[in-house]
Amino acid sequence: MTNPRQSLSLALIGSGGAGVMTAGQVLLDTAARCGLYGLMTRSTGPQIRGGEAAAILRLATRQVSCQADSLDVLLAIDFNQADRFSSELVLNDCSWVIADPAEGEVPAWIKESGARLVEVPMAELAKAERGVRVNTIAIGLVGALLGLAAEPTRAVLESLFAAKGSRLIEAAGKGLDLGRAAAAGLAIDGLELDSAPAGKRWLVTGNEATGFGALAGGIRFCAAYPITPSTEIQEWLAGALPQVGGTLVQAEDELASINMCIGASFGGVPAMTATSGPGLSLMVEALGLATAAEIPLLVANVMRGGPSTGIPTKSEQSDLNLALHGAHGDAPRLVIAPTDLGDCAPSAHWAVSLAEQLQCPAILLSDQFLGQARGIIDSPALHGAATERRRASEPLSGYQRFAASADGIAEMAIPGTPGGGYTATGLSHSISGRPSTVAADHLAQLARRQHKLDAFDYGPRWADLEGEGRIAMICFGSVTGACREAMARLAEAGQPVRLIALRLLSPLQVDALNAALDGVDQALVIEQNHSAQLLYYLKSRVDQPGRLQGLARPGPLNFRASEIVEAIVNLNQEQAA
User: Fold this and answer.
1) Is 379 left (phi over 0), alpha (psi -120 to 50) or beta?
2) How far apart are CA 101 and CA 78, in angstroms?
3) End-to-end CA distance of the chain
4) I want to staple 236 with a disulfide (CB 3.0 to 4.6 A). Which of 165, 180, 211, 298 is the partner?
5) In a domain, 474, yes or no
């Protein structure tokens, strides 16, 4: 009997409609009931229905923010279109592959990996009991191999199918029993997971956490147009906003949605929209209006592969340049990126608070990996109450909406406030809001809008700074999880490195970043896009830009910790040479 594992990686694959996502969710939910941590990510084709589907899970006794380097178990409900996963799912001679011999030939890439193949006639077993589906057999089989108890699994299935009637619940239970019985006859061991420390945890997706953080930050209006992979944000808010007196509107398109949000915020109601790259492209002009009129606004952008329609169902970090610079004219805005799934709620909360305080748009830059990942995480802290915008107090006399102040932040009157009427315009304007072509007015407003962002004290949350060493890793967003794991491995190997996981991307905290790089000989900027957008952004701002090197790769292949370790080891060797 081998010692229980601290971490295990598995994937379930099959054709769209085979129920692999449901099976993955049930296994993750069961792990949560058993007190474990976990992460489930999804890989699908761009089809609305059908195509390939993979649920990729990592279960562990500690919180995990990235998938493992390779799979311990791959269960194939069928091998239809499985070749599309050949670059995403890494197998080796220690991996187990469980497949139904009646569901297609084993693909060459699986055979060539050296993985050990075990055949289980799941479709035949399902025919033995009326109404049983193969995916419930897969749940029972994998759950038993991992040492997950039957009763928590059964409770999850009952909860999931409660609205669909007792017959479906009964059939699911029979499938579970068939799968567990099949597992007992397999010569597979060493997959059981150890127990995890007790604690309060969340079982949540990144998109759901983003919605929660925005709501806790004060958002009471959302208008959005559905777009993969951000739609779950508005789906969550559709149920939550009415409970706090808020409203959600499904707009006819992205242009309408952001302009509805600008109108709501102008009227005094904190507002947000959610979108992805193609939608953000359409919103650029309205973002400029919100900047010029100084109207608070949150745009949650969940990045996907681009350009154009790109790969809607895969992750990428290629909207960075658009988020930072997507506007005509000088239009400074906030850009904030959560560093992992557990940071989605706190970062959304912070983004709303900053937008309201600074009276400007804020873009929350998430991505498909974070947004659609479902994880078991420690309960996150939201860092205090949200801060409201600076409102003009009554009685008002001679109100000047855009008058200068020491910190650059003006008082904002709510429409209908006696004496507080003003023009909120995208035209260059005077301090009263009246359109103006006078050079002095234009310069004064440009300078004040930039000053209020630059002068604000953002505190230590601009980045997560971890570790020590002469080499640093700089990253943002979902890449952070793999970087953290690489940092831990390097420390164990006696090669300590620093990690700078940027959260506040704009305005970039240049002085703080230079201080964090003090004593660093080389910094590797790691990002999930083709053109090294973060690298060149940082090179334009930091001292000694020659210290910065890039490790950039577009989606859909996410970075693995082992790849980052290898890059750092090579960098160390180059320095030593």
Assistant:
1) beta
2) 9
3) 46
4) 211
5) yes
Could you tell me the two tokens for 362?
A: 């804020």
418 in Cβ contact with 395 (< 8 Å) = yes
> SS3 for 224?
strand
Domain enclosing residue 522, as ranges: 460-576
Whether 256 and 113 map to the same domain: the answer is no
Measured distance CA(391)–CA(271) in Å, rounded: 16
Number of domains observed in the structure of the chain: 3
Q: ω into residue 418 within 30 of 0, thus cis?
A: no
CA distances to 39, 135, 203 from 379, in Å: 15, 31, 9
Is there a single domain that holds both residue 46 and residue 156?
Answer: yes
Helices (H), 217-330: 231-240, 254-266, 277-293, 320-325
According to DSSP, the β-strands at 37-44 and 463-466 are unpaired
Question: Are 171 and 214 found together in one domain?
Answer: no
CATH code of 519's domain: 3.40.50.920
Contact (Cβ atoms closer than 8 angstroms) between residue 324 and residue 278: no
Distance CA 571, CA 577 (A): 10
Q: Is residue 384 part of a domain?
A: no
Same domain, 227 and 140: no
Report the predicted TM-score, pTM, of the whole model to 2 decimal places: 0.96
362/358 Cα distance (integer angstroms): 10
- CA–CA gap between residue 441 and residue 180 (Å, rounded): 74
3-state secondary structure (DSSP) of residue 227: coil
| Same domain assignment for residues 262 and 323 | yes
- DSSP assignment string, 25-65: HHHHHHHHHTT-EEEEEEEE-S-SSSSEEEEEEEEESS---
Q: Give every CB contact of residue 96 below 8 A, 6+ residues apart in sequence.
A: 72, 73, 74, 115, 116, 118, 188, 191
- Residue 568 Cα distances to 73, 91, 486, 530, angstroms: 29, 24, 9, 20
Query: SS3 of 263, please?
Result: helix
Q: What is the distance between the alpha carbons of residues 258 and 226, in angstroms, rounded to a whole number?
A: 13
Please report, as a single letter, which amino acid is at residue 289. L
Torsion, CA 513, CA 516, CA 521, CA 524, rounded to 10: -60
Question: Per residue of the chain (577 residues), what is the pLDDT tens digit?
Answer: 568 899 999 999 998 888 999 999 999 999 999 999 999 999 987 765 667 899 999 999 999 999 999 999 999 999 988 999 999 999 999 999 999 999 889 999 999 999 999 999 999 999 988 889 999 999 999 999 999 999 999 999 999 888 888 888 999 999 999 999 999 999 998 999 999 998 899 999 999 999 999 999 999 999 999 999 999 999 999 999 999 999 999 999 999 999 999 999 999 999 999 999 999 999 999 999 999 999 999 999 999 999 999 999 999 999 999 999 999 999 999 999 999 999 999 999 999 999 999 999 999 999 999 999 999 999 999 987 778 899 998 878 899 999 989 999 999 999 999 999 999 999 999 999 999 999 999 999 999 999 999 999 999 999 999 999 999 999 999 999 999 999 999 999 999 999 999 999 999 999 999 999 999 999 999 999 999 999 999 999 999 989 999 999 999 999 999 999 999 999 988 877 6
As a whole number of angstroms, the distance between CA 345 and CA 278 comes to: 24
